[in-house]
Design a protein that fits this description.
Helices cover about 0% and strands about 55% of the residues. It is mainly beta. The strands form 2 sheets. Strands 2, 4, 5, 6, 9, 10 and 11 form a 7-stranded mixed beta sheet that branches. The protein has a 4-stranded antiparallel beta sheet with strand order 1-3-8-7, with no helix packed on it.
Length: about 120
């Protein structure tokens, strides 16, 4: 049974920083892409950032230059360093991983349960 657990959310003032973490546990043979999504109240869940197994990254335009995604392949973890936070960054943040439970099986998508980030003075 694979489980993804996010942590690191909370309340922060505008201009502040937070670092989100997501740990994958269970039977895991290989993890390909790791991603972060977010969902603000009344809005659809949207993609924020992604990182390949080799370390190539991509970001949604509104977070470029402020957020940094990174990963630790040995620990099956992905991180999101968020700087210069704005009120519009307020959302529930979810991690998503494309992984293989067994090496001969196809990649499957797994989601975490989400962590709340609130940016407010």
């Amino acid at each position: 049974q694979v489980q993804l657990v996010e942590s690191g959310g909370g309340l922060v003032q505008p201009g502040g920083s937070l670092r989100l973490s997501c740990a994958a546990s269970g039977s895991i043979a290989n993890i390909n892409a790791m991603e972060w999504y977010r969902q603000a109240p009344g809005k659809e869940r949207g993609w924020v950032a992604s990182i390949t197994r080799g370390g190539s990254t991509n970001y949604e335009d509104s977070v470029k230059g402020r957020f940094t995604i990174s990963r630790d392949n040995a620990r099956n973890m992905v991180y999101l360093q968020m700087n210069s936070l704005r009120p519009e960054d307020t959302a529930v943040y979810y991690c998503k991983m494309s992984l293989k439970i067994l090496s001969w099986l196809p990649y499957q998508t797994f989601w975490g349960q989400g962590t709340q980030v609130t940016v407010s003075s």
